[in-house]
Design brief:
The complex is a heterodimer of chains A (246) and B (175).
Chain A (H helix, E strand, L loop, with lengths): L13 H5 L9 H44 L29 H9 L19 H13 L3 H11 L1 H9 L6 H14 L2 H13 L3 H10 L3 H11 L4 H14 L1
Helix pairs in contact in A: 2-8, 2-10, 4-5, 4-6, 4-7, 5-7, 7-9, 8-9, 9-11
Chain B lengths: L6 H23 L2 H17 L10 H17 L22 H16 L3 H12 L4 H8 L3 H18 L6 H4 L4
Helix pairs in contact in B: 1-2, 1-3, 2-3, 3-6, 5-7, 6-7
The chains are: A mainly alpha (246), B mainly alpha (175).
Chain lengths: 246, 175
Amino acid sequence: MSVGSTDNLERDPLDDVLAAARWPEMPGEADTRLRVAWARITGRRRNTTWSLRVAAGVMVVVGAWAAVVMTKRPVPPAAGPIAAIATVEPPVLVPSRPANHAELAVAIAGRSRPVAPPRPIVAAVRPDPEKVVTQALAWVREKREADAVAAVRAAGEPAVDRLFARLAAPHVEERLNAARLLGRINGPRVTARLAAMVGENRGRREAIAALIQSDGPAAQAFLREVRTWHGLGGVIRSVEVQLRSF
Amino acid sequence: MGWSLNRSAFDRLVLEQLPACQRFAVRLTGDVAEAEEVVQDAMVRASRGWKTFRGQARFQTWLFRIVINAWRDRERPRRGAEELTEVVDVRLAGPVREAEAEELGEAVARAVSGLPPRQREVVVMIVYERMGIPDVARSLGVTEQNVRTNLHYGRERLREKLRAYLPEEQRRECR
């Protein structure tokens, strides 16, 4: 066959034999894996953009909110001689020291009992944040949200971290209750963490649920922004319906 | 003159072409696991370069080019290794039964997947993907003459490898 000939070059009798070729079939799981991979690839590309938008949005919103709050603060009194404020320092407890050898010798000689060394002061035990969160979520179920919020706030950042972890709990009711509690706790750091979760699509629904529950202006401003993002308006509406049913 | 897709339309097109890409990759590689990796690699490249699709060619042509590049980059370290030159000596006589048909199918697939890379690409795209020479040339970034040359030499190699399966009149065409 001449290479230069174009007569039926695309069709050759050999092709009838070649048509018998049997290649292995790609299994269904491979197709599924590839589709999941595509979703991850396109999602990561979008989330990179969204993370930047989220970060910028949160910074603008929190900054604006802080500016509003600062301008509404009461004007401090005119500067004048600053009166010295006498502060009463709490008394410092000095544990009595153990008796030294000389004193012990005198005490023994005087047939008086030696002074026993004081017991060490035991540091105050901080509550277990996991137990605090478990109790707090139980209070949420009993509609005692004020008690739950107070308990988590008193336990501090470790308890808030545990609460964020509960957003991934296996039971939907627990996740939504954790979201409710985070929403009530509010605060700029909590809002920023929730906003980041939305942008990065990590526990997005739960993060949205928490933001919906928050009455903080930063959280509400962020939600208004997110409603305009592609595909998220529907997610927010869906979460709102879900919150009403639990 | 060109136009560009929006991102969601692009994503949809990729998913529509996914089965064709998988099939194409299996024919290129001859191996399902490797084909999956090639397609996954191609998807990453397609996602990064989606704006380069301007509508000058069919979307499948553009995507197949990416699959081929992904496959070539994997094949590059292996160049120099012996290609498959196995010629199956199966004594067939009379009608081909199912088991023999399966053996034939596997032999043909092995022979095609054992061609040198460029010939393999051209044969798979023309014979199995039923693409025209201009589309193949665009996919591979070569001239149409180059495609014809590789198609000719690819078929010659296959004729030699699959001699035992060829009808008598085609065997006479072999050297």
